[in-house]
Specification:
The protein is an alpha+beta fold. It is built from 8 helices and 23 strands.
Amino acid sequence: MRLKNIFIAFISVVAASCSDDLGVIGTSIQPVSDQIFVAEDSFNIASSTIKTDSIYAKTTTALLGSFNDGVYGNLECDFLAQLYCNDDFYFSKTLINDKLDSAIIRFYYQSYIGDSLAPMQLSVYQLNKELSNELYSNSNPAKYCDKSILLGKKGYTPYNASLSDSLRKVYKSSGFFIDVKLPQSFVDNFYKKFKESPSTFANNDNFQKFFPGLYVTNSYSSGAILRIFSTEMRFHFKYRKTTNNHDTVGIVRMAVNEEVYQVNRYKNDEADMATLLAPNPEKSYIKSPAGVFTKLKFPIGAMAKSLKTLDPDKKQLAVLNGAKLVINTYRAESSKSKLQPPTAMMLVRESQYDSIMTKQIKYDVNKFPIASFNSTTNSYTFTNIAKFFSSELSSTTDINATSSVILLPVSITSQDSYGNTAAISHYFQPAAVTIKTTSDKLKLKIVFSK
C-alpha cells in the first residue's frame, strides 16, 4: 500500500473528484488556513471464481444449441416457452373448405456462436403440463414435458444453407429463420377445438390450459448456439373475402412475448466447470450465461485506516472524493475461443447477490456501478465509485474487515436522453472473459481529503 499527502486548493479537489484520473494533483498557492490535505492510496484486491446454481432466465430471447469452446468448455442451451393468445382470438369465418391448410413454428435468429456450417437439428415437443412461475435457468423440462408429443424436428446449419442467395439477401437485415412443419393431425385438432370450444380461445389463461407450450431442444450434433429473438406459431389458410368475393391466403400468428413464460435452460460440463473454478492466483473467470462469476474482496478495514491518516487523532475519516477500479483481461486467441467478453459488468454486493440472481434487476446508479468493455485496452473501468464504499467505510472498525463484491455481466437495455444507463438486465448471450488478478493488475485507487 502506498500513501501520498499533498497540499491543494479546494477547487482542485472538486476537479479531482470529477475526473477519471486519480493520479497526483498539483498544488495551488493559497494561504495555509485556506488549504486542505489531499491524499491518494491504492489497495490490492483478492479474487476468486464462483458459480451459481441458476440465474433469472425469463426472457423473450432464447438460446438453442450446443457448443464446445476451446478455452471455456461446453455449453448446451434449450428452452421452455408459452405462446400468447390474444383475447377473442379467431380465424376467418369464411375459410375455404372450413379447414386450416397447414401450420409451422418459426424461429427467427440474427446471430449465433460457433461453426456457421455445423449440421444441427432441433426438436419441438408439446408440453404436458402448464408452465407455472418458471423463472430460472435450472428449470427441469421433465417436470412439464415427457416428450410423448413430438410436434416436429428440423435439420439446419446456423448459416441456414437451405436458403437461396436471393432469399438470404431478403432476410439478412431482419435475421434468418427456421421453419418446423406441424403434423396435419395437430392442425386439424387445433381448428376443431376452436370451433367446438370458442371459450378456450377467449383469453390467454384459458388457452394455456389447452396448449401449455413448447419444449425446444437440440437433438443432433454440436457446434453452434443460435440466439433466437422471436418464436411464433403460424397457421395458414385460404378464405373468401366478402368485399370482392375473391379467395385469398391468410395467416394467423401466436408468438412468445413478455406476457407469457419463456425460460432458458443452460447446462455445462462438470469437468469444464471444475477447471474454471479451481483457485488460480493469476486469473479468474466469467462465463455467460453459465452463471460463472468473479468475486472480488475489498480490504475495507485497511481502506478505513487509510482514510484516518489525515486526522491527527486517527479517529475521523477523511472524505472519499474518488475511487477507480480497472478490471484488466486476457484476450483468448480466436483460434482457441469464439466467445467474446460481455459488453458490460456490474458490481453487486455479495449480500445482494441472491436477490439479484433470482429477480429482474431494478437499476440504481449509486447501488450498482457499471463499466462497459473497452476493446482497445481489453478492460472494464469503474470510475468515481466512491459512493459504493462510503457507508461501509463509515461503519467499519475492524482493520481486517473485507467487503465481498460480485462482478456480474449485464446488458444495458435502455439509456436516457443524456446517454446515461437507465435500465439493465442479466446478460443472456454466450460470452466469456478471463480477468487478470495478479497484484499489479487488480488494484483499487482512491483519492480522499480533509
